[in-house]
C-alpha cells in the first residue's frame, strides 16, 4: 500500500577483526518518521555511514534500494544527489560565516563562477521561515545557540532538496523546549512528505513522533516495531536494546545519611568576560555523608557554572561566598586546593574536559593524584599499573588492558575512566555533571550502581542532570535551579517531574 | 580473580615477532631509517662516513642541534613551538665572547652566567606564553628578531675571538685516557662497554618487572636481538672513536642530557604532566595540574639548553659571529618532527628527537662528503622531513 522509500537488505560490514554489522535490515516508508535505536556501539552510525556512502559501495555486503531502485553510492555527494542527507551529532557548520553562507556552503548560488548574493539571501530567508528560525541571513552562525544552529543545519538539508533526512541524536545538546520545537519540525516535514530517520537515546521522543522503530543490537537488527499497529512501552524498547529485561532502570538504595560534609552559603559568581553579568545568585546548599543530592534545571540555568566555580574557581570572576567542608571553612581558590580539600568534579564533557584521549587508561586514572603513585617526583609505574588495573576491574571497564588508549573506548567505558580518576583522588564530595550523558542504557545502569556505592561508602554526591527521571530515581534530595538561582528544594518522597517543571516555570 | 587474570594475560602474550614489529612500526621506524641512511652513505662515500675522524666530526657538528632538540621536544609535546632558539644560541655565543675575550673573565664564571642568562631569556618568553596566553609562535618570532638584533649589537657587527683554551674544551676537548695507552683510547672503550651494559641491564630489569605484572607483549627473541644490536652498536662506535682521539667532551654532555631528559619524560610527575598538558590542556587543568607554570618551565628549560648549544657552537668555531645560530631553529624543529612528535602536542619521545637530529646530521655530513651542493641538500632534507611525517600519519591512520 505505502511506498517504501528506503530498503537496506542484509547489510554486512566488517572491519579488520570486527563484524560491525551483520545482515542488518532496515525499511523506511515514504513520509514516516523512523526511529533507529540501540546502545552506543550497536552499529547505528556505521549503518548510516553505509547508507550515505561514507563507506562506499563494495566495502560492504548487501543491497540498498532507494525508491525501489538499487543504488551504489561511492561518496556523500552521490547520496546527497538522491536527496539522502545526514545531520551529524557534531554540527558541520562554520561559526565565523553567516547563516546564508553556511546554508549554501559547497552548494552556492553561482552564476558564471560569481556568487549571486541577493538570490542567496532571498533563498535563505525562505528556508529560515520553513524551519521557523527568526534570524537575519547575515547573522554570524557563532552568535546562535546550539538549538538554532541545529535548525540552520536542517535548513541546509532543505536547501539540497531533501527526500530522506537522517538526524543523529539531534536533541542531545538541546534543552527541553528546543527539542520540542525540533520534533514538531519533523512532524511538519512528515506532513510535506519528507521521510526521516531519527537516531536517539531518548525514548520519550520516540513515543512522541515515531511511526516505526528499528532496534539494533550488537550489529544486528533485532526488531522493527510499528507504533500505530501496536502499543509499545518504553520497557519493550529497552528490553530489545539491551537484550535483557530492565524492570528497574534505577538500582534501589537505602540511604544512610550522616553529618553534613559540604555546606555552601551565599555563593555569587560573575561572568568571566561580561563582568557586570551575575551568573550565580546567592546560592546555598548542603550535602550530607551518604547522600545523593540532585541539581535539576534546564540547560543554561547555571548548573555547570556553579559546579565549576566551586571547583577551584574554574569558572567565573569575582567569586564570593563560603564553602565549609566537614564543618571547616575550606579554601577552594585553585583546582589543586579543591582536590586537596576533598572535592572532585566529573565534568559534563568528558572528551573535551575530562580525558587525555591520546593517552592510556593507566595514565588517565592517576592524573589527578599523581603524587600518590610517586615519591620525590618519580612515578612508580608498577604501583600505577596496579592501581589502574584495580579500578578497571572494580568499575568493570571493558578492555583487555589498562594500556588501551582512552580514545578507543566507548562512551560508557570512557566515563568509567573519568570516574576512576576522581575516585583515586579520594574525595569526600563528588560533583557529577551529567554523568550519564551520551551513554547507552546498559552502561548507565552500571554508572548508577557506582554512584550508589559511593554514597554507601559515606561520600557526598552532587548530581547534575538534564534528565529528570534520572534525578528522581537516584537522589535523596533535589535542588531546582533556574537562571543562576536555586528556586526550590524537594525531598525524594515529594519530588516529581511536574513539581520540578512548575518550580522552574513559576520562578 | 587475580589468578584468572594472570592466565588470560599470559595467553595473550605470545605474539609473533612479525606481528609485534607491525604494531610497533612507529616506535622503530625512524631508528631503522637512521641505520639505513647511514648504511647508504657508508656505501656511497666508500666508507668515509664511518671513519673515526669523520664520526668524531659528526658528533661535534650535530651536538648543538641535538641539545636544542631535547628542549624543543618538551616545548612541542607541551603543544607549543620555539622559533627563537637559533637567535638565542647566537646571542649567548656573542655574550660569552664579549665576556671571555673583551673582559677576560674566566670560563668557570662565563659558562654559568651564560646558562643563567639563557634560562632567563626562556623564562621571559615563557612568561608571555604561559600567563598571558600569547601564542608561542608570535612570542618566539619576536624573540627571534630581538636576539638576532641584540647579537649584532653586542658584537658591533664583527666576529669576536679567539676564545681562551679552557673555553674551547667545551666543544673540542676529549676525555683523556686515564689508562695511559693513548691509542686505542681505553677509557673510551671502557665507557662504551659500561654504557652498553647499563642500557642492557636497565632494559632487562624493566622487562622483568613488566613480566611480573603480566603485561609484556614484546617477544623474548625480539628483546634479545634488539638489545644485542644496540649494545653492539654502542661498543662498535666507541671502538671507532677510541682509534682516533677518544670520546669528545660534547658526546658525554649529550649522553648525560639524553639520559636525564629521558628519565624526566618517562618517569617523573613533571614529565607526565607536560604530556597531559599537551594532550588536553583543559582536562589537565581540571585535574589539578598547574599548566601555566609547566609551560613557563618548558620554555625556561629551552632557553637554558639553547644557551648551552650556543656556548658549544661558539667554542667549536672558536669565535662568535653575528651569523651564528642562523636558521638553527629550523633544523631543530625538523629533527623533533622527524622523530615522531605530534604537531598538536602530547606525543613525542626524547630518543625520537635525538634520532631525528642524527638523521638530519648524517644526511648533511654524507651529502657534503659526496659534494652535493647546498641547494640540493636543502631540497633533499625538506623531502625527508615531509616523508617522515607522512610515514607517521600513514601509520596512525592504519592503526585506527
From TrEMBL, chain A:
* One of the Pfam families matching this protein, by short name: ABC_tran
Mind naming one GO cellular-component term on file for this protein?
plasma membrane
Residue span(s) of domain ABC transporter? 6-243, 264-506
Checking Gene3D superfamilies in the record gives:
P-loop containing nucleotide triphosphate hydrolases (3.40.50.300)
Its localization reads: Cell membrane
The protein's topology relative to the membrane is:
Peripheral membrane protein
The molecular function GO annotations come to: ATP binding; ATP hydrolysis activity
Q: Write the record's keywords in alphabetical order, separated by commas.
A: ATP-binding, Cell membrane, Membrane, Nucleotide-binding, Repeat, Sugar transport, Translocase, Transport
**Protein's UniProt name:** Xylose ABC transporter ATP-binding protein
Species: Marinomonas profundimaris
UniProtKB/TrEMBL annotation, chain B:
The superkingdom listed in its UniProt entry is Bacteria
Known function: Part of the binding-protein-dependent transport system for D-xylose. Probably responsible for the translocation of the substrate across the membrane.
Q: What is this protein called?
A: Xylose transport system permease protein XylH
Q: Membrane-crossing residues?
A: 28-45, 66-99, 105-124, 136-155, 186-204, 224-241, 294-314
What is the predominant subcellular site recorded for this chain? membrane
The GO cellular component terms are: plasma membrane
How this chain sits in the membrane, per its record, is: Multi-pass membrane protein
A Pfam family for this UniProt protein?
BPD_transp_2
Q: What family is this?
A: Belongs to the binding-protein-dependent transport system permease family. AraH/RbsC subfamily.
Could you give a GO molecular-function term held by this entry?
transmembrane transporter activity
Q: Keywords assigned by UniProt? A: Cell inner membrane, Cell membrane, Membrane, Sugar transport, Transmembrane, Transmembrane helix, Transport
Q: Can you say where in the cell this protein is located?
A: Cell inner membrane
Amino acid at each position: 500500500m505505502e511506498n517504501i522509500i528506503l530498503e537496506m537488505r542484509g547489510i554486512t560490514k566488517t572491519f579488520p577483526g570486527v563484524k560491525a554489522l551483520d545482515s542488518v535490515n532496515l525499511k523506511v516508508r515514504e513520509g514516516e518518521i523512523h526511529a533507529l535505536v540501540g546502545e552506543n556501539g550497536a552499529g547505528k552510525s556505521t549503518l548510516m555511514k553505509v547508507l550515505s556512502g561514507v563507506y562506499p559501495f563494495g566495502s560492504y555486503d548487501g543491497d540498498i534500494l532507494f525508491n525501489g531502485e538499487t543504488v551504489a553510492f561511492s561518496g556523500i555527494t552521490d547520496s546527497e544527489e538522491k536527496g539522502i542527507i545526514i545531520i551529524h551529532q557534531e554540527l558541520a557548520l562554520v561559526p565565523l560565516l553567516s547563516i546564508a553562507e553556511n546554508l549554501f556552503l559547497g552548494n552556492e548560488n553561482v552564476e558564471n563562477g560569481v556568487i549571486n548574493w541577493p538570490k542567496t539571501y532571498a533563498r535563505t530567508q525562505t528556508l529560515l521561515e520553513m524551519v521557523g528560525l527568526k534570524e537575519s541571513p547575515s547573522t554570524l552562525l557563532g552568535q546562535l545557540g546550539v538549538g538554532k544552529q541545529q535548525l540552520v543545519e536542517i535548513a541546509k538539508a532543505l536547501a539540497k532538496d531533501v527526500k530522506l533526512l537522517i538526524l543523529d541524536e539531534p536533541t542531545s545538546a538541546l534543552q527541553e523546549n528546543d527539542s520540542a520545537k525540533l520534533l514538531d519540525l519533523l512532524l511538519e516535514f512528515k506532513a510535506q512528505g519528507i521521510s526521516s530517520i531519527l537516531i536517539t537515546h531518548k525514548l520519550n521522543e520516540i513515543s512522541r513522533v515515531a511511526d516505526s522503530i528499528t532496534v539494533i543490537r550488537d550489529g544486528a537488527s533485532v526488531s522493527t516495531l510499528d507504533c500505530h499497529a501496536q502499543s509499545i512501552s518504553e520497557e519493550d524498547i529497552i528490553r530489545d536494546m539491551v537484550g535483557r529485561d530492565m524492570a528497574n532502570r534505577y538500582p534501589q538504595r537505602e540511604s544512610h545519611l550522616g553529618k553534613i560534609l559540604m555546606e555552601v552559603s551565599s555563593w555569587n559568581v560573575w561572568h568571566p568576560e561580561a563582568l557586570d553579568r551575575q551568573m550565580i545568585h546567592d546560592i546555598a546548599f548542603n550535602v550530607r555523608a551518604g547522600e545523593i543530592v540532585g541539581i535539576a534545571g534546564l540547560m543554561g540555568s547555571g548548573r555547570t557554572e556553579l559546579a565549576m566555580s566551586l571547583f577551584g574557581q574554574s569558572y567565573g570572576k569575582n567569586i564570593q561566598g563560603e564553602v565549609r567542608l566537614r564543618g571547616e571553612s575550606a579554601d577552594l581558590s585553585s583546582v589543586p586546593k579543591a582536590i586537596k580539600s576533598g572535592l572532585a568534579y566529573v565534568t559534563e564533557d568528558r572528551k573535551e574536559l575530562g580525558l587525555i584521549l591520546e593517552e592510556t587508561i593507566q595514565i588517565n586514572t592517576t592524573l589527578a593524584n599523581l603524587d600518590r603513585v610517586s615519591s620525590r617526583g618519580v612515578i612508580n609505574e608498577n604501583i600505577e599499573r596496579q592501581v589502574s588495573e584495580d579500578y578497571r576491574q572494580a568499575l568493570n571497564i571493558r578492555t583487555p588492558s589498562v594500556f588501551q588508549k582512552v580514545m578507543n573506548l566507548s562512551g560508557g567505558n570512557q566515563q568509567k575512566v573519568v570516574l576512576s580518576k576522581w575516585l583515586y583522588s579520594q574525595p569526600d564530595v563528588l560533583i557529577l555533571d551529567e554523568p550519564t550523558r551520551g551513554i547507552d542504557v546498559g552502561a548507565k545502569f552500571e554508572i548508577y550502581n557506582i554512584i550508589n556505592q559511593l554514597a554507601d561508602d559515606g561520600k557526598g554526591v552532587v548530581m547534575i542532570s538534564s534528565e529528570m527521571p534520572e534525578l528522581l530515581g537516584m537522589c535523596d534530595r533535589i535542588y531546582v535551579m533556574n537562571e543562576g538561582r536555586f528556586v526550590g528544594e524537594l525531598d525524594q518522597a515529594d519530588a516529581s517531574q511536574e513539581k520540578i517543571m512548575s518550580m522552574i516555570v513559576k520562578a | 580473580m587475580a589468578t584468572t587474570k594472570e592466565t588470560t594475560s599470559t595467553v595473550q602474550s605470545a605474539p609473533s615477532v612479525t606481528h609485534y614489529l607491525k604494531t610497533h612500526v612507529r616506535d622503530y621506524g625512524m631508528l631503522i631509517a637512521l641505520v639505513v641512511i647511514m648504511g647508504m652513505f657508508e656505501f656511497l662515500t666508500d666508507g668515509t662516513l664511518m671513519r673515526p675522524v669523520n664520526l668524531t666530526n659528526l658528533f661535534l657538528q650535530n651536538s648543538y642541534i641535538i641539545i636544542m632538540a631535547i628542549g624543543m621536544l618538551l616545548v612541542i609535546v607541551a603543544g607549543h613551538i620555539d622559533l627563537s632558539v637559533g637567535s638565542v644560541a647566537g646571542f649567548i655565543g656573542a655574550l660569552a665572547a664579549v665576556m671571555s675575550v673583551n673582559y677576560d673573565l674566566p670560563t668557570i664564571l662565563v659558562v654559568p652566567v651564560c646558562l643563567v642568562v639563557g634560562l632567563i631569556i626562556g623564562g621571559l618568553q615563557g612568561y608571555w606564553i604561559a600567563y598571558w596566553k600569547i601564542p608561542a609562535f608570535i612570542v618566539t618570532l619576536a624573540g627571534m628578531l630581538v636576539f638576532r638584533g641584540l647579537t649584532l649589537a653586542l658584537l658591533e657587527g664583527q666576529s669576536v675571538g679567539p676564545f681562551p683554551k679552557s673555553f674551547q674544551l667545551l666543544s673540542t676537548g676529549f676525555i683523556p685516557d686515564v689508562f695511559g695507552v693513548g691509542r686505542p683510547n681505553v677509557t673510551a672503550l671502557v665507557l662504551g662497554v659500561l654504557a652498553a651494559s647499563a642500557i642492557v641491564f636497565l632494559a632487562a630489569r624493566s622487562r622483568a618487572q613488566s613480566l611480573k605484572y603480566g603485561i609484556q607483549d614484546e617477544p623474548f627473541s625480539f628483546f634479545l636481538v634488539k638489545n644485542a644490536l644496540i649494545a653492539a652498536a654502542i661498543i662498535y662506535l666507541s671502538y671507532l672513536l677510541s682509534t682516533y682521539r677518544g670520546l669528545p667532551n660534547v658526546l658525554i654532555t649529550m649522553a648525560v642530557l639524553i639520559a636525564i631528559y629521558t628519565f624526566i619524560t618517562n618517569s617523573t610527575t613533571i614529565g607526565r604532566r607536560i604530556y597531559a598538558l599537551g594532550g588536553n590542556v583543559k582536562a589537565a587543568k581540571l585535574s589539578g595540574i598547574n599548566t601555566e607554570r609547566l609551560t613557563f618551565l618548558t620554555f625556561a628549560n629551552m632557553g637554558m639548553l639553547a644557551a648551552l648549544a650556543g656556548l658549544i657552537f661558539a667554542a667549536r668555531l672558536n669565535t662568535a659571529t653575528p651569523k651564528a645560530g642562523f636558521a638553527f631553529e629550523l633544523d631543530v624543529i625538523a629533527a623533533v618532527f622527524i622523530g615522531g612528535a605530534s604537531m598538536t602536542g602530547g606525543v613525542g619521545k626524547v630518543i625520537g628527537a635525538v634520532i631525528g637530529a642524527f638523521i638530519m646530521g648524517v644526511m648533511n655530513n654524507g651529502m657534503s662528503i659526496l659534494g652535493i651542493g647546498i641547494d640540493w641538500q636543502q631540497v633533499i632534507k625538506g623531502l625527508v622531513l615531509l616523508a617522515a611525517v607522512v610515514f607517521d600519519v600513514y601509520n596512525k591512520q592504519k592503526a585506527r
